[in-house]
Fold this protein.
Amino acid sequence: MNGYAVVDVEATGRSPWRHRVVEVAVVQLDAALRTEREFATLLDPAGPVGPTHVHRIAQEDVVGAPRFRQIAPWLLELMAGRVLVGHHVTCDRAFLEREFARIGVVLPTVPALCTMRLARRLLPQAGGFGLSACVEAAGLGWFPAHTALGDAHATVELLRHCLRADRLPEEPVPAAAAVPWPRMAPARSTPSRGPVRLLRRWAPLGPWPAGVEGPRPLVGAAGYE
């Protein structure tokens, strides 16, 4: 039996049809919500990076980052057979669905869990239902907001918090495990024939104070953790 794939994307704008994913993260959890492995990288959106004041990704930060096609096989492997989880998961899925569609891959319909919806029911004291407000209402501490991996980690903790307080009426994990997923051959090289290298942002344990620039990227090894 598989488990959950907690996803988060940062994008160049709000529209999956007009804008592109510029950073993506996936955290795999088993059926007991224990972390198995994680993946994160900046992406070259083949154009402007969009609202730097929100995601703190500058144009120069994505120089040398992989294109979506190059990391798509890894994403499929990480998400296959798992419940898709996100904070406003329909938004994250829409961006991923459109990115895969651009390279001719159709994502299957799978069970999904939205931590925003869970929080609306279980954290009525939250001042709002954005991820930061929900994390604060749950007493989960600081996190580096608007980094894909930081948001994914925060969503993992929010999911654990909510599911400790509430049992799902229907267990989605077996249903997700039964859904067939497409497969892709690995992208073994870049146009320069070098290995595909991830470009992962280092993120602090706390959120960035107002007016402080986000951390610079760190180059990661080919493959994923």
